[in-house]
Every structure is written in C-alpha cells, then in structure tokens.
Design brief:
heterodimer; A: 326 residues; mainly alpha; ABC transporter involved in vitamin B12 uptake, BtuC; two-stranded antiparallel sheet; 73% helix; B: 389 residues; alpha/beta; Rossmann fold; 2 domains; 7-stranded mixed β-sheet; 5-stranded parallel β-sheet; 12 helices; 14 strands; globular
C-alpha cells in the first residue's frame, strides 16, 4: 500500500494512458449499442485485425526498432491509416454479412448476440490458424507459427522523459497515447454532435422509425457507426503497438472484455462515458496491481464494475446517445 | 410384439459388437514382434510441449531421446523398441488425457516425461495408478519427487532446490543489493521463485527482494514494469517460460530499466534474443543442464551428426532418460513392474551425469551441476558452473 501512495502520481499516469486505449475500443461498443441496442462482441476482433494490419505493414516495409524521428512519425501515421482502414473495413464487413441479414429478418436480440460471438471466434481462428496455413510461406515471421502467442512489433518511439512533476515522470509514449486518443475522441464527439451525419446517428439512436420519416437513411447510419467504431479501434490498435509492442490472434478477447467493461462503467451508449470509463478502469487496474500483484488486476477491474452497476445500473454518466444531448 | 423384440435384440447385438470391437482395438497393437523376446515391439511414450511458444525448451530432449532409440534400433534390427511422442503443449489437462491413453495401452512400458513441472504434477497419479514408470528429463519442481506412496516417478535432472540455491549463491557472489522476483504462477515458475525467495531469506548476507506475480498468457505488463520502476532493483529474476517472458522483457527494457535480467531453465531458448527483439541480450539463464561440450562420451558429436545442430537444453538428459528405459527393457524387462524394478536398480554413467535414483526418484544432488548461460543474438553462451557446496 505504501508503495502505491509513494508513487501514486506515476501509477496514475500509467493507468490513464492504459485507459485511453481501452476508451478508444470502448467507443466502438458504445456507438453500436447506443443505436442498435446490440453488444457487438466481434468488435474485439476488429481491434485485433487492426493490430495485425500494422504488423504486416511494418513487416513489408522492414521497419526497424527505434528509427529516426523523421521516419518514425510518417510510419506511425501510415500505421494509423492502415489500421483504421483494416478495422473499419472488417467492422463494415461484419455488419453487412452478419448483422444485416438478421436485421432484415427481425431476428430477436439473442440471435444477434450469438452471431456476434460466433463472428468473434471465426476471426480469431482465421488469424490464428487459417492465415498461417495460407500465408505461412509468404510472411513467415508473422504467420509462420499457428496461433502464435506473441508477435512482436518494432517500437517506433523510445520512452524518454518529457516532463517530471514532483517525482512523476511523463514520458514520450504517455504523451503520444494520450494526445492521440484525446484528439480522436474529440473528433468523434464533434462529428456526432456538430455534423449532419452525426445528427442522423443521434436521430436513429433516439427513434429509428421517426428518423426514417424525417428522411434519415437508417441503413447508411448503421454502416456509418460500424465504420466509426472500427476506425476508433484501428487507432487503438496502432497506439497499442506503439505502447505494448506485441499482438496475437487471441489478443482481442481480454482487451474487448475490458473495453466493454469500460463502456458499461461509463454508461453504455454514452460517448463521454466511454472515455471516462476507460480511463477509470485503467487507473483502477494499475492501482490494484500495485497494491496486490499484476495477476489480480482483472479481478479488481470487475469488482469495480459490479459495485458501480449495483448502485448506478446505467453506468456513471448514464445512457445517452439516444437522448437529446449525447 | 415380435418386431419390438427383434429391434431390441438387434440393438443389443450391435452394442455388444461395438464393445467387443473397442476391446479388440485396444489390443490390436499386439501384432508383429514377440517372436524372440517379449519386449520387442514395446513402446515408451515421450510427452511434452512439442509445438507452441514453449516448445524450444523441450525439442532438444525429444531429439536426444529419439537418438537413443535410433541407436538401439539400428543395432537390433530384429527387436525394435518404439518411442511414441505426445504433444501436450505443456498443458496439464492435455497431458492427463494422453496419460490415460498410455496407461490403458499395455504395450507402453514407460514414459519419458513430463517436460514441464505442471504437466508432470498432473499426471503422476495417473501413471502411478497404471504402474507406468516415468523418467523426466526436465521437470524440476522440488515436490515432484519423494512423494509418499509414489513409486513410479524419477528424473535425471536436478531439482529446483539445487537450482535455486545456485541462483541465490550467484546473487550473493555478484553483490546484489535488491532483487525483483516475478513468476507466472505456474507449478514450475511459482515453485522455483518461492524456493529462491526462501534461499535469499536464509542467505548470509540476506538479500532484500520484492515479489510480483503475473498470469500465464498475459501480454500487458504495465503494472509489473511500474512496480520495477518504483522499486529500482539491480536484478530482475523471472520464473517461467518464454511465452510470457518475451513481452515482459521487451516492456521492461523499453521502459528504460537497465537492471540485470535473470532467468532459469524454463527460459533456456536459443531464440530468446530474437523473440524479444534484442531486449533479452545480456540476460543470464541458469540451468541444471550441461553445455554440449561437457557431455560424457560421444553424445554431443552423435547428436550434431544426426540433427545438424549441437544439443540444446536437456538434450543429454533426454538421451539419458531414453537410455535408462532401453537398457532396462533390453536386459529382459517386458512388463511395467520389471521395468520399474530395473530403473530402481540402475547405476551407470550417462551422457549428462552418473545415473542412480534414490528412493524418492531423484539423482544424487552431488552429481547435479547448475550452469549459467548468457543470452546472445547467436544463442546461449555457457558462462560457468555455479558451485553450491
């Protein structure tokens, strides 16, 4: 405990930057739930695909660890574009091929959930088993082993201290992750609240039938939210590779679960809630690990979730994508 | 009435037929051999992680064992012994399933395994129930041997009591001021780290340490790295396997931590430097296994001639475990009880050490030498034997 108190600033900074990544992934869950009342379990694999897109791109370009800044920044931006496209693309593909037919047939919500879990498993195995068999010869470092437990990605940016406040060091990676995440989230917030398309999203979230009467194309809006969620997950994937530096086909499971927890914690359907939930979750995990041990961080994260839901079932900020303000 | 009776009789006959067929299946392996000695055509199982992230530590011992069987079969073409491999991926549940298979097939006279302590722990009761003798080339957890009522378990490798003592002495000799111990909660990792912590407590001078635990298959180690940064140890010891060590070491180094990294035989992977993208370079690994050059007899040359590479971790131990079975069986043991008796009486120089098992199944601790190796981009360089006494 004293360990935590002594270094609370440092642990908080670490937790916030970890939580920012959870928040970005949580946005995908929250957007889809807010409009469709569907928990898109396949979203975690959308994140995983984004990380693989980054790994493959870097491998094809033969990116080295810690390149010069003039190389690192464009490489990171390229990674962002590639991950965003890959994740957004997969999210859209899942929507078009799996959820759209179910929506057309007015399937009950349970069927959507089962399909989502199924898609999640399919994607995990495609990247863990099928692609290694198909591409194993072409890209041996990435797809050489089936269900590889850990694929390393070269770190682009070194961790160097940027500023030290009262014993707490904020380093380059913290800054990059936080700033990027906040920029993306502000971008999404502005999009949802200030643009015509965003208005469409909020309209469909409030009341799909009335929105259709008002001339909002529901189908387009739904495609849009899946793509938006996917792009946010792609950004999270890139930040993940910058910060953690590895991935695997099963990585989506834990991240997805934590991000979903973050979304529920903040208020599912609430964009700002996703941000708050993500950061809070990251901080709680790091504090818990500091006091007990790293193996217990998941336990404490879920305890927090259960406690919050017991006293405030709609989450900290309440559901509100469908409400007037969002 | 008659129709129902016929159907019932038909079903019963089909069921009976299936049972008989299943029973026959289990015994069809009988075929072939048996013309000369009873033991010809018998089998010894090898079980361990042959695929997956942790396979690099096991494959050399499999290859060593295979070499021993190949040498025997070439010298005795009329009476072959077979080694059957079971890939458990180090998973205790998988291993238990294979153990059941082996126990029920009477052609199996013994097993070389398990490679990891977790899977060994899970399967000892199964093999004991079937009377199948076990010789492990690499399972080092202390409490695997010497269990009351267990007669089948043996190992040709020293255990973690010896290894942890050697690591503790190494830390004392190096003048370590603070050690960070992290383990993965597995039977091997947690056991070894707990032993090491005990030795550090008992040591003179006592070395202060801080502990942390991670989970198997964990990939984000923020919390551990933050703890290390807060504690500022000069040595970091990881008890576990490469699957978690690789991302952990990378994250430690990328956070700018320069403490000396230490590992034990679970990390004896020649690719450790490359799977960590250089983060593990300079790390020191201990192992109660010899470098290739130190093995007795022509083992190292024969291994290299057969496989094209020098024997890696526990290659000599795998060879020795196989040799014990081969020597005992070819001396006339054709049942599990006879093999077990032969193993208990075994007393011979092997490639790695003099092999003689005590009542608990261990080799004499005085013949166990723990070596330290340095991780380099070309593999593992032997440094020196770590004396304990």
């Amino acid at each position: 405990m004293s360990n935590l108190i002594d270094h609370i600033g440092q642990y908080t900074v670490d937790g916030v930057s970890k939580g920012a990544i959870y928040a970005l992934v949580a946005l995908g869950y929250t957007l889809v739930y807010g409009v469709l009342r569907l928990i898109n379990f396949a979203h975690s694999e959308v994140f995983m695909v984004g990380t693989f897109a980054v790994v493959v791109t870097y491998s094809l370009l033969d990116v080295q660890q810690y390149p010069a800044l003039v190389v690192a920044i464009p490489t990171a931006l390229l990674g962002l574009v590639v991950a965003g496209l890959a994740s957004g693309g997969v999210a859209l593909l899942v929507e078009r091929s799996a959820y759209l037919p179910l929506r057309r047939k007015n399937a009950p919500p349970l069927i959507f959930l089962i399909t989502a879990i199924g898609i999640s498993l399919v994607l995990i195995e495609v990247f863990g088993l099928v692609l290694p068999r198909v591409l194993g010869g072409v890209l041996p470092e990435i797809f050489g082993r089936e269900r590889a437990a850990s694929l390393s990605v070269p770190y682009l940016f070194e961790r160097r201290p940027v500023v030290t406040i009262a014993g707490t060091t904020i380093d380059t990676i913290h800054v990059i992750v936080l700033v990027s995440a906040i920029v993306m989230m502000i971008g999404l917030d502005v999009f949802i609240n200030r643009t015509r398309y965003g208005r469409g999203v909020r309209a469909v979230a409030q009341n799909p039938q009335t929105a259709a009467l008002m001339g909002v194309n529901q189908d387009r809006v739904i495609m849009l939210i899946f793509v938006l969620g996917g792009v946010m997950a792609g950004a999270a994937a890139l930040l993940w590779t910058i910060r953690i530096g590895n991935t695997q086909s099963a990585i989506g499971f834990v991240i997805g679960l934590k991000a979903f927890t973050a979304a529920v914690l903040g208020g599912i359907g609430n964009l700002r809630g996703a941000l708050l939930g993500g950061i809070l979750l990251g901080v709680v995990e790091v504090y818990a690990a500091a006091v007990t041990s790293s193996a217990w961080e998941d336990v404490f994260a879920f305890i927090v979730l259960v406690v919050v839901l017991m006293f405030r079932p709609t989450g900290l900020l309440g559901e509100s994508l469908g409400r007037a303000r969002a | 009435m008659r129709r129902i009776n016929l159907r019932a009789v038909g079903l019963a006959a089909a069921a009976l037929g299936l049972v008989v067929a299943a029973g026959c299946q289990a015994n069809t392996n009988e075929g072939g051999g048996g013309e000369q000695a009873d033991y010809c055509g018998k089998k010894v199982g090898f079980f361990g992680a042959l695929t997956g992230e942790n396979a690099a530590i096991v494959i050399p011992s499999r290859d060593g064992a295979k070499l021993a069987f190949k040498e025997y079969n070439e010298a005795n073409p009329d009476c072959q012994l077979e080694m059957v491999e079971f890939d458990t991926q180090g998973d205790p549940d998988q291993a238990a399933t294979f153990a059941q298979q082996v126990v029920s097939d009477q052609d199996f006279l013994g097993v070389i395994g398990g490679a990891f302590s977790g899977e060994t722990h899970g399967t000892i009761p199964v093999y004991q129930g079937g009377g199948v003798p076990m010789i492990s080339p690499s399972a080092t957890r202390v409490d695997l041997s010497g269990r009351p009522g267990i007669t089948v378990f043996h190992r040709v490798v020293g255990h973690d009591g010896t290894q942890s003592a050697a690591i503790a002495k190494f830390l004392q000799d190096e003048g370590a001021t603070k050690v960070f111990l992290v383990d993965d909660g597995s039977a091997y990792g947690a056991g070894l780290t707990a032993e090491l912590a005990k030795r550090l407590d008992e040591g003179d001078p006592q070395i202060p340490y801080v502990t942390d635990k991670i989970q198997e298959e964990q990939t984000i180690f923020d919390a551990t790295v933050a703890k290390i940064q807060a504690e500022q140890p000069d040595y970091i010891f990881y008890g576990g396997y490469p699957r978690e060590a690789a991302p952990l070491f990378r994250q430690i180094r990328s956070a700018g931590i320069t403490a000396q990294l230490l590992g034990a035989d679970g990390l004896y992977d020649p690719q450790l430097a490359s799977i960590t993208e250089g983060a593990a370079e300079g790390a020191i690994i201990t192992c109660p296994c010899l470098p290739a050059e130190e093995a007795a007899g022509t083992f190292a040359e024969d291994f290299e001639a057969e496989y094209g590479t020098p024997p890696g971790s526990y290659g000599a131990e795998g060879y020795d475990a196989a040799k014990v079975f081969i020597d005992v069986i070819s001396a006339g043991a054709s049942t599990r009880e006879e093999v077990l008796a032969g193993i208990k009486a075994y007393d011979k120089q092997g490639a790695s050490k003099h092999i003689k098992f005590d009542a608990g199944g261990d080799v004499d601790p005085s013949v166990v030498v723990v070596w330290s190796y340095e991780v380099t981009s070309d593999g593992l360089e032997p440094l020196k034997p770590l004396g304990v006494q």
